Amino acid sequence: xxxxxxxxxxxxxxxxxxxxxxxxxxxxxxxxxxxxxxxxxxxxxxxxxxxxxxxxxxxxxxxxxxxxxxxxxxxxxxxxxxxxxxxxxxxxxxxxxxxxxxxxxxxxxxxxxxxxxxxxxxxxxxxxxxxxxxxxxxxxxxxxxxxxxxxxxxxxxxxxxxxxxxxxxxxxxxxxxxxxxxxxxxxxxxxxxxxxxxxxxxxxxxxxxxxxxxxxxxxxxxxxxxxxxxxxxxxxxxxxxxxxxxxxxxxxxxxxxxxxxxxxxxxxxxxxxxxxxxxxxxxxxxxxxxxxxxxxxxxxxxxxxxxxxxxxxxxxxxxxxxxxxxxxxxxxxxxxxxxxxxxxxxxxxxxxxxxxxxxxxxxxxxxxxxxxxxxxxxxxxxxxxxxxxxxxxxxxxxxxxxxxxxxxxxxxxxxxxxxxxxxxxxxxxxxxxxxxxxxxxxxxxxxxxxxxxxxxxxxxxxxxxxxxxxxxxxxxxxxxxxxxxxxxxxxxxxxxxxxxxxxxxxxxxxxxxxxxxxxxxxxxxxxxxxxxxxxxxxxxxxxxxxxxxxxxxxxxxxxxxxxxx
Length: 565
Description:
Strand content: 5-15%
Helix content: 55-70%
Strand order of the largest sheet: 3-6-7-8-9
Number of strands: 9
Structural class: alpha/beta
Radius of gyration: 31 Å
């Protein structure tokens, strides 16, 4: 499969009027659904609301134009709120632009190097752990606006936020709380009446009108709106130069890596879920390149990180979208809303947006999945809990890095535990083996010959175990046969271990024979020149040849040879 093959180019070859009408309807609905979410995610991330819309417009357009999925919808998502907010607090908007652009470059490289399939194998407990952690963090950040609390400054870390909230609960604004709770209620009950109209949009329209009437005609001024906190610029901004310097890039590289990994995981997860519904098959590498291109372009226009959005992608599918044209239309709808209805967004109450994000965080939390994973093996539970608590208490960058590290160590431990080394002397029982041999069920071995069989990958996790068994087994032999029929691959540490064994054996006058080496492992031996050292004649295709070679080296008559008639 090619690394870069946008689905749009393929879709347009057999495009029809029927497909366009279906995509048009889906694109309009997804654009309307994306409106409140883009605004809410932008504000929660620490930028002005139109920045969220700009991200959805430009990012969504690029993802659909170049992406490897027919139905993927790109834009800002809740997963990035925590990391984006932290970057802005520490490095400002310029730092966010640099981190996002660098993340885009990383994503493009990942796609070009065909790492799309690798990303899918990130352990599920890690994904659930940081997703649930992000959900709890988003919920925590919305408490101030949901309750209308009066605070001089909102602390950055999780625990300090809750301490500050409890200290300020005497400043609760009942009108803000009422609007927030009413918004949550509307979002919950709307699907019972209509699944076409998003509950978040209904909540924003109803609560905005209610807040406007309360302010204008009831004299209630305590309801904070977007316009009280932000100045809305209802136009597409021009490109801005991003100031690059290596010092800032080095500081922001961990954050950029987190954005890239999070974007890759969420996008490919969304595309995989979509495939399960549509029966289509996305191109992971093309999708990563498209996500990277979007994240390179969006910060130039002041936007925040872009990724595939599962909720909007499913909305697209459920409303008939089947080609990337629907995603392009969704971006166009958002652009028209920004240009012509942008000024109206200043009347949206902050408590209403907080209610929208409370529902988003609940849906993200996956608490049922989290609870079920707690019944899994202790190793999985430890990865889940460590990732979750690191996300909540510290930050997402540390959580992903440590979670991946723990998962890799646990994986290596499991592989090492399933890889065995067995030793045989005197005879080898072939009765239940699938390896090619003659009619014998037992092969006799010459005196002083030991057969070591490696069952599993010969990599750095098992190399030392093999070495210990080799040096701690009985008397010094004359010949060592290393059976490798069950070794699927060998890494540089395994090769180094084998070379060390050869040198020690040669110094002690012990001959070395390899048996059952597959083509992949043989290629590693040939490339390193090890085959020449041990002798190509001593690399045998099966155990019969290896044992016959050992009898030949011993100078004795093999009882395995059948007399000719």
